[in-house]
Amino acid sequence: MFHYASKCLLSVLFIVSVASSAVLPSSQALEPRQGACLSSLVRPNPVNNVGRISFQRYIDEPRTTGERADASWAPNNLIDVHMTVPTNVYTAQNINVYVTNRSTRGNAIILTNFQDTLLSTQPRAQIRITVPGQTRANGVVRPGMASPCVHLPRLDGTWYFQVEQ
What we know:
Blueprint (H helix, E strand, L loop, with lengths): L1 H21 L30 E2 L1 H10 L3 E8 L2 E7 L3 H4 L1 E8 L5 E8 L8 E9 L3 E3 L2 E3 L1 E3 L2 E3 L6 E6 L2
Antiparallel strand pairs: 1-11, 2-3, 3-4, 4-9, 4-10, 5-6, 5-11, 7-8
Keywords: Signal
């Protein structure tokens, strides 16, 4: 009797769960790559205050020196970031970003603008630069590279970058 009751209960629970998941609005549907039961949770922001590096002074530098600004960082031992800020950054609002990824897994660099340097403020603008993972062909390892010209929607506040993962 217990076996029959538990079998019926499991069948009912399965039908209810299938029916309830079928009526979820598209805004709460699972992402194809997610494959988990977290459809009603908000997708987490990949940006936090851990490991962020400010590059605002390189944006401000061409205004004071009249020359372009170059800066390089290695936020971890697999990714290198190089930025070139041209002298016309305040009129064009563009910077060149070169990212090298020596990991086999793709990653991204997130550029984020905050109003100030306080840890409690929310981002005002975000730009995501996707960087593919390294590849191997004919015994040669080629790092993943991205070198976009990035348009910054605003130049005030403080700009930071960080590795997404």
